Protein 1
Amino acid sequence: MTRFPNLRRSRARRLPAAVTTAMLLLISAGLMMPGSATAAGPDTSEPGYWLVASPTTTVGELADDLSKRGYDVMEGLSPDGAPILATAAQAQRLRRDGLSVRYTGPLYQPVPASVQAAAGTYYGGYHTAAAHEAHNQQVVTAHPELAALKTIGQSWLKTQNRGGHDIQALCITKITTGDCALSTTGSKPKFTLMAQMHARELATGELAYMWIDYLVANYGKVAAVTTLMDTTELWVIPIANPDGVDIVSSNSTRPVSQRKNAHDNGCSGTGRGVDLNRNSSYHWDVNQGTKCTETYPGASAGSEPETRAIQSFLSSIYRDTKPAADFSAATTATTGTFLTLHSYAELNIYPYGWTNSLAPNNTDLKTIAANMAKSNKYTVVHGDGGLNYFAPGATDDWIYGTLGVPGYTIEVGPSSSSCSGFFPAYSCMASFWSLNLPAFMTLGTAAAKPYPTGS
């Protein structure tokens, strides 16, 4: 039996006994995990989703240890095990360690033969990084009075003169003098939505694409959209990790499970790169992972050009209203909100993610997250409460801890059916959109005065 010494205890949210019992019954029937409802036997040629359990440790402790050992641990605590993405060979190694390992579903969903892949799309309809860039330009050309496009930095490969991409940010508002400048002096509050920082989280980039189209198509037609665009700058970074997305989309029917950027680090396959959501300059933690693990935080805080580009951009448009101390509150004069989209776990996450201690603006931060939950019905959490781990070096913590701007993460997608996992069927985008559009509107509206109580 493998022991797991020196493990922290995960403070996962407690579930009512009746709910826990119901979930256990569903799990035993194969209905609560990623992939097919029946969770048929694994395809040994490619990774799949598995549930790992230990008779001697809590789920949170187990998940923490598996992550440190280099396993790809999923978000969202199951009541009876830690969910991972792994090959059959990796699962067998865990069994030899004395752990219980059960297959719960495939990584990929079938792409219907009837789907005709449009130019710039893959895996049933998801857009490539190049297609996102073309779309950004098309929107600006068609709606110059409503949109402006900015280049805010470069991807790692572009900094090496090896192809790569510019990092793009789109500003959407009814443009008047002074709007959409990279300046903190503008008169309108800002809401920024950022997607596909983790390249394999396909649904997030598509939601950004749909958000852009929804705004420009409904100005002057939908009162709430018109009011929001008249009063607020709505910034969108549709693809925060374009090199990673190129890797993912290089196989149109079996996307590559690349989470990190494309920084060469001597690792093969999806071990290549740096986890951009562990690389910020706020509470960066060298112990988050070694070079080839999924949460490798990089050689130093802010080591990656994508990270530096995003932080520089956000610092250029948001005013700093928070003292440097972690637990000093931002002022009630703060304006702006920020959202980064990830998948999957059906969570609305608010600061902090590096600790379970309450942020100084906890009441107001939690209120906004709860308002988001009124539409998407996702669980509201902070710290490690809805994940299997803390996330030091994450962007949402950086923008709150550094500038005082409320930063949120939405983990899109359920833990079951063809709409779960990193690679949900493209048909799932309709439900993801209907659930999360009101949450986006909530954050946009909150940008004018996010801390009404100052507590």
Protein 2
Amino acid sequence: MNAATVPDGESKSTGHVVLIAAAAALGGFLFGFDTSVVNGTVDAVRAGFHLNAGQIGLAVSCALLGSAVGAWYAGSLADRFGRLRTMQIAAVLLGVAALGCGLVHGLWELVFWRVVAGMGVGVASVIAPAYIAEISPADIRGRLGSLQQLAIVLGIFVALLSDAWIAHVAGGAANKSWFGLEAWRWMYIVGVVPALIYGVLSIPIPESPRYLVASDRPQEARQVLREVLDLKSESALDRKVEEIEHSLRKEYKPSFKDLRGPRLGLLPVVWTGILLSVLQQFVGINVIFYYSSALWHSVGFSEADSFTITVATSIVNVLVTLVAIALVDKVGRKPLLLAGSAGMTVALALMAWCFAQATGNGNALSLPAPWGPVALVAANVYVVCFGVSWGPVVWVLLGEMFPNRIRAIALAVAAAAQWLANFAVSSTFPALAELGLSFAYGLYAAFALISLFFVWRAVRETKGVELEAMPE
């Protein structure tokens, strides 16, 4: 049998597998929520703790260092303790850190708890796409894998919406709210709720069949395959288990040394994953979701209007992610990435041009008519282009592009690289903004153009390919 295809009747989508993938994708919701909730706190924390541009950049981005650590070790944790137990570890880290961030008394306490939260986000960012890819039928794996990105953008939306609501109730992010705590503290504390839900929902879903086979538990793997792939015949189950065993036989317990190869010390597919991750961040998307409220406020919009604009942008992000889910298994991964890169390049270049027309500087910066509305439209076009392509598609590819024997470890490395790139972009944006927003967005436009050529030359299409058939 060709490993790249599954005969009719042997594998089909079931409501069960969709529900399982949706539960696992809640890790993506926490990812989006915990990385974006900081958006509404930037100005209040900066004023309350008297921070300069470098310090507020650290406060916003330090979680990403924790995310890199969490992502780096997530693969090892998943291979040692299983995918489900690793999800529960992420939920605990995120819940505890959400409470800690809301009760801090200074910058360094906030940095500590943000790093802890980041570790939980990093673990969730690796384990969710790996688990979803491992329990999904090949014909809908792209759509189920895109649930991770849908959950991320929903998490971003809920974080920004809750920020806006809490600030509205309190009359401002810096004002006192419930129990005498400032509103920005409650923006962090509400993160306990989704962390608890994620931990609880990870209990009843089944373990990954590939982890079960690797752990010498083939009968349990057969039962999971029977349920999630709807395989009816014993012969079909036998063939599937044999495929998994064959793909894992060379490396029963993969480690980082298995990533070594001829291209600067790594396998070519590992470099492709790393560069996809880095470029996904270097186009500057998280500047929109970490700093947009402060950004729009700085160019003349009121605090309330800035929150409203940010929430509206997150709604756009959710809607275009739904479009991506509908297209990823029909159009393919590579065409979506190419189209997204082209669109982002144009939109970012337009944003750079708009901000080149700005007058004043710092908090006195303003965009004369008609450049403010044009910049706002360009920013949302940029989000559309990213949301329909590089947002979901990179996570789909990272979950499926690596061979079985190195998937968890290689995904951990690629995700760690993504978090480090995210940190580099997020921590430098306040300083770049002081140099000039036109320069900052021009730089991101250049990386968007680079991403176009990279995908054209280096990325292989994986639509419809079985995980067991992924080449190195």
Protein 3
Amino acid sequence: MAEPAKKTENITLDNVAEQKYDLITRRLQEVLGGDTIRAILAEGRAPKCYWGSAPTGRPHIGYFVPLTKIADFLRAGVAVTILLADVHAFLDNLKAPLELVAHRTKYYKHILKSVFTSLGIPTNKLRFVEGSSYQLTREYNMDNYRLCAIVTEHDAKKAGAEVVKQVESPLLSGLLYPGMQALDEQYLGCDFQFGGVDQRKIFTFAELYLPRLGYAKRAHLMNPMVPGLGGGKMSSSDPDSKIDFLEAPAEVRRKIKRAFCEEGNVQENGVLSFVEAVLIPISQLRIERLHGETGADADEGASAVGTQTPFALEGAPEGTVFSISRPEKYGGSLHYQAFADLKRDFADKKIHPGDLKTAVADAIVQLLEPIRKTFEESQEWQEVEKLAYPPPPQPEKKKKKKVYHPPPPGKGKNARADPAVATNGGDSVPASSEEAHSTAEAAKQQT
């Protein structure tokens, strides 16, 4: 993970406001426009933010990173909007028709609310908005046209390079994507937009072009991206790189067992990175909650479902955020209070990849258990899931065409007796060439 976001010192805050700013910006990879947030806090106002997701493929466990971070925002008193970007989902190289996007939007809302509840984050403090509820209005479309009149094709394509699916002949729809995401900041009334570091080019695009329309420049906060299980990007389109929120325990363990996790290698290690980006922050969140450190969010954890303890073994030292179970003959279990110590031990080959994988798989199964249970108990969600992600159509079995092959001369049920064949007591036997010739001559004389 990158170094923590650096504080901006231009605006002095009191202790309470400084603590809020630290909560808002901790564990992020980058902060653009931090002074904007500090100015709002200095005025005693509550900042407003939005986080958006386009409902295309099935959400995967990499989403735990931004969703967990939202707990920090609520603790700092931030008003949070969750955007279900249905129009964006359609525009992204037509990954799904509008009818299918509508079902997937409902599915995303179910899954996100379930994940928030499993993390102890109160959903009643979150505002859920569908993009189509305002992106189809006259006012929004006029602003979109105004934006199109000043944005070059080069800038639009560059802004969406990390987010919009890149193809050889891009559709115009993909070029509209970044501009609409920029306009969302104005129409959702946010002070900062939150997203993954893969959104950076769209964020800088928004900072450049919104002021040209007469709108305020917003701040942008970016979380790190979790590598996939194979070491590359965790992607909804690559089933081997990710684990879905509804994945069965056996499938979770199978995928983790196959994941790239070379002994001593801490680079592009998806298993190790997941501990850093997801498991340890959730453990810290739970430990702080046990100590009553929830800031402005007094409701945090009140409606939580599932296990709410850190990923530490029974009897682990106070403050342990992650434990690895090992038999005594291999040195006994290991307990860590900071990721840096775990990373160092793995690099020094003090931790076997198999032991790390087992601990991570156990933690993921525990994380997903309440989400799967909620799904299994909700008939509505199950019906939505079938509509949102129907099984792919089975290829039609090609029927074999019967081809008529005529029998050879003298064969078949209507064939005349072969003069070259004589009978002997009812049994057919080949006739000699002389017998066949005599028979043919006799037949000629009788006609």
